[in-house]
Design brief:
Elements (H helix, E strand, L loop, with lengths): L2 H6 L3 H35 L12 E5 L7 E5 L4 E6 L2 E6 L10 E13 L2 E10 L6 E2 L5 E3 L8 E6 L6 E9 L5 E2 L1
Antiparallel strand pairs: 1-10, 2-3, 3-4, 4-9, 4-11, 5-6, 6-7, 7-8, 9-10
């Protein structure tokens, strides 16, 4: 007897197993196709929804120049020190360059003489990081601890519409930057 004839004359159970295997694989294939189309549809819909950042803007007003106290003002919510000396202003980040802890402003009992970039000068205060011990001179230069870079200085400008001081946290400037009003 021919082997193919034996296979064709097989019981309905054998034919049913081929049929159920085929329908199972078809269901798997259709399920994968449906999942792919659903993912494509979701991505298409998602592209219509804008990405919104719920964080404060990087450029903001800090008030009129005469409203800031002489000396140092700490803006805790922005982690920023703003310095005023007469009509001259500067802004220094309070975020340590090591791991981002907030540095503390420390007024020294008496100014110390230090050499920074080949220049000897008097330093009346320093910044100290309470997390890992980094220390920075008054211009933000790192001199002790694990901090790999100086503190960032940010651009200050006057708002053209109302004359308030504006800080741009995305605009880093040289450490000798001062705004004179």
């Amino acid at each position: 007897m021919n082997h193919s004839a034996v296979r064709n004359a097989a019981s309905p159970e054998v034919l049913g197993s081929h049929s159920s295997r085929r329908s199972f694989l078809q269901k798997i294939g259709l399920g994968g196709l449906a999942a792919g189309l659903a993912a494509l549809g979701f991505q298409s819909f998602r592209s219509l929804v804008p990405n919104v950042l719920y964080e404060p803007p990087s450029k903001f007003k800090i008030g009129p120049p005469t409203g800031l106290a002489e000396g140092v003002t700490f803006l805790e919510d922005r982690r920023l020190y703003v310095f005023r000396s007469g009509s001259t202003y500067s802004a220094v980040s309070a975020a340590c360059t090591h791991l981002g802890c907030t540095v503390k402003y420390m007024k020294l009992q008496q100014p110390k003489q230090v050499e920074v970039n080949g220049e000897v000068r008097s330093v009346p205060f320093e910044f100290h990081c309470p997390c890992h011990g980094s220390k920075f001179y008054d211009d933000g230069t790192n001199y002790a601890g694990p901090a790999p870079a100086p503190l960032r200085w940010h651009r200050l400008e006057l708002s053209p519409d109302d004359g308030q001081l504006m800080v741009d946290l995305n605009m880093e400037v040289e450490r000798n930057f001062r705004l004179t009003v």
